[in-house]
Amino acid sequence: MHKSFEEFVLNEYKSSSSEIGSFLFDEKKYWLKKARPTKSSLSHKIYYKLFKLELITPVEEKSAIQALEFECTKLEEFKKLNIPVPNVVFKNSDFFVLEDSGKNINSYIRKKDATQEIIDFYVSKAIDAICFIHNNNQYHGGAQARNLTFKDEKVYSIDLEDSFDSSIDLKTLQFRDFLLFLLSLTKIRAKVEVNYIEFIDKYIENTKNYDFKNRLQKLASKFYLLIKLSKVKFIRKFLGNDVILFFKLFEILYNLKENDK
Ligand SMILES: Nc1ncnc2c1ncn2[C@@H]1O[C@H](COP(=O)(O)OP(=O)(O)O)[C@@H](O)[C@H]1O
Ligand SMILES: [Mg+2]
Question: What is the pLDDT of residues 237-257, one digit of tens each?
């Protein structure tokens, strides 16, 4: 490690007030992420017990240093498996520094003027990346579009800090990943059709997680009443666009057929 780089990042850490931020050094871009604890709130845990929704599986409580260690170790593990991740170039007990791995996928697809082609391109690439992680018997833990970045034709995984109780099996964590990703697509604001069924089929074909369709359908059926209510004109008036898109996705999931191709 170049001494002046170390001095630079230590100074950057002290002078920045945000938990994560980018900086330039020698014309190269980096991200500094400060250690902070991970936990789910009590109400979150209660909802989970009540509804048994994979979507809200509580994250394991970790201290700031444990969370930092976990994320850096996972970045190294992914790298060994050839899963694209940014290099960790500096780490101490307060923060770590990553190389820049491009703009996040959400920033490409959330634009009001994003075309169908652009959306299909990035979503499809992101699904390939999630499939690759899952086919390596891993999970991302926060697979929303904002935690996947695109650089040099590759999709990188970032924000790997969340872990879960060991009683939760890998398939459930992978299901949660996929669901979080699908839900993050409800942020798309452009007037385009999101080809959910195609994307779901692509994921299932590539991972052979054939039961996920059934799991998605079962999950959506828990929201049946809300899905129906969200279609009532009078109620719609009070719902934000992302809520409407959320229920639109859930209606598609509800109507998924085992043999949908
Ligand atoms: N190595 C990186 N390359 C490019 N962008 C990054 C990188 N690390 C973080 N970011 C950007 O910062 C945002 C927040 O970082 P993230 O690790 O997801 O922290 P948080 O846990 O706060 O969500 C990401 O959504 C992404 O836009
Ligand atoms: Mg994030």
Answer: 888 888 888 899 999 999 997
